[in-house]
Amino acid sequence: MRKLLLACWCCLCMSVATADTIVYPRHQATHDPQLDYVLAVLKLAVQKSGKRYTLRQSDIIMVQSRAIEELARSNGSIDIIWTMTDADRETRLLPIRIPIDKGLIGWRIALLPPGRGELFSRVQTRQDLKPYTAGQMHDWPDTRILRDSGLKVETSSSYEALFKQLATGRFDYFPRSVLEISQELASHAELELALEQHIVIEYPAAFYFFVSRQRPQLAADLQRGLEAAISDGSFDRLFHRQFDPVLKQLQLEKRTRIHLENAWLPDSAPLNRQELWFAMPAPAPALQR
C-alpha cells in the first residue's frame, strides 16, 4: 500500500510539474536574435498573470514549420511558439492577439553581400526592387508576401545557410526585421555583410505568442498577463529599453519606405488598438506608386 501511495504521489507531482511548465522551441540560429527579448516578454507576462510557470527550452532544434506541427499535435513536445500570424496558424493554434513586436516584424532592412552596400542607392519603389532576388526561409510568411508583390525570392531550409549564401552571391539581398538585423550582422561579422542604408520595406504584420489548443488556460493566463503589462506601462518600458537604441541607429525616418500588402494578415489583428503598434515619430513621405 505504501508503495502504491508513493507511486500515485510521484505521478501527481509529475502531472503538476508538466501543467506548470512552458516548453518553447530551440531555434536553428547559432545566436537567436529574438530569444532574449521574447523570453523577457514571456517572463513579464507570466509574472503579471499571477500564475506560476517554469520556462524550459526544447531539447530538439526546430525550424518554424516543425515547431508549428509540434504545437498543433495533441501530445506535442512544446507548449508555445512566437511567430508571425496568418489565418492558417490561427486556425491550428491558439493565438494571443497582442503583437509583442509592435508590428516591427514587418519593417525590413536588407543585408547585402560584402562590398555591395550601395546596391539599392537608386531604389525608390517596389518596381525598382523587381530585378533583384531576396533570400528567405521556405516556411516564413514573408516569402509569400514578397512573392505576392511580384518580387523574386530564393528559399532555403537552413537559417544559418542564408547568410553564407548571401555572402557568396546566391541571391542579392536578405530582408531582415529591424528588431533582428543588428544582432544578426554582429553574429555573422566574419562574412563581412553590408547593411543597406537607403530603404525600408514595410508591410503590416503581427508577431504573436501561439500556444497549443490543448492549453487554453495557458493562453488565458498569458493574455491576462500581457494586458496587465500594457496597462501599467511595463511592456512599453521593456520594448523601448530593448529597441530604442537600435531604431535610432537604423534611422528609419530617413529611409525611403516601400510598402507591400499582406493578404495573409487575419482580420482579427487588433489594428484599432493604436497603443499596440509602433509609430514612427517623423516618417518619410510615401512615394506614389
TrEMBL record:
Q: Does the keyword Signal apply?
A: yes
User: Which keywords does UniProt give here?
Assistant: Signal
* Signal peptide feature range: 1-19
> How is this protein named in the record?
Extracellular solute-binding protein, family 3
Instruction: Name its species.
Output: Andreprevotia lacus DSM 23236
